Input
Amino acid sequence: MTAYHATVLRTAHVTPRMLRVTLVGDELKSYQGSGLPDESCRVVFPGDGEPRRVYTIRRRDAETGQIDLDFVLHDGGVAAEWARAAQPGDPVLLSGSPAGKYAPPPDTEWQLLAGDATALPALGRIAENLAPGARAHALCVIEDDADRQPLPGVTVDWITADPSQAGPRLTAAVLAHDLPPGPGYLWVAGEMSATRDVRKHLRHALGLPADRYSVVGYWRHNAEEWEARFRAVEPDLAPRLAAAEDIPDDEEYFDVVDDIHAEAGL
Ligand SMILES: Cc1cc2nc3c(=O)[nH]c(=O)nc-3n(C[C@H](O)[C@H](O)[C@H](O)COP(=O)(O)OP(=O)(O)OC[C@H]3O[C@@H](n4cnc5c(N)ncnc54)[C@H](O)[C@@H]3O)c2cc1C
Output
């Protein structure tokens, strides 16, 4: 993994709860990403222990050495607080990897794109890069109508919910949506209870093969409480979780880990 030094060039609100931070740096001119529209990087923030969080690369320009990251301004959190206070010249480190999961198979006739506010940067880039004539529908869970963003070429159901309900609302929206006939592709990202339940539904209830969907957990509601409960049972779960690491197939791995967590009430 390569590390890139950058500084804040400017900040601007995309919507009241989404702040775009434009980073600049000579090292960003040679940023090695995947080029996929949902590619992300690890952002290392200055401070005790150099906390790091994962953010989608909303735009990158090799010529000017600029990268845009869009931050959801939720309550608490090192990253959200850093973005709120960001000033031109503030330093930050990006560690890049060829991340990103968006990969519709070539015969895809329709796409369902679903997520909460954290997925909007990727959804925006996916929309801008859709092939001409592509048929895509989005289900977006946002806090209120002011959080809407343009998604060119995509029909959108905007669903408003308090962030504490984003997971259940996202799950309900995807499960209630009638998928069109013919070969399609689903891209789903957001709160982890939703991505766990949606992945299970697509794989087990609908029996979709793994190349027909990409489902990625972006954040966890009440993360501190979940982590405390995890730490309490970690010694019991550790051997099974370690054994799961040997499972070569990603989807089988997620099945096993989800089951271990569910049995432990996590
Ligand atoms: C591949 C990938 C791409 C991502 N892209 C983006 C992106 O482009 N923009 C973006 O904003 N996020 C994105 N995320 C999600 C982001 O990494 C998390 O939201 C992260 O937890 C934010 O860090 P923090 O320091 O602000 O909060 P943390 O320190 O992680 O958490 C502090 C508290 O805030 C809560 N919390 C965390 N995130 C949210 C949220 N979004 N809404 C409400 N409460 C929250 C936690 O439950 C916890 O209680 C992405 C995640 C992944 C894995």
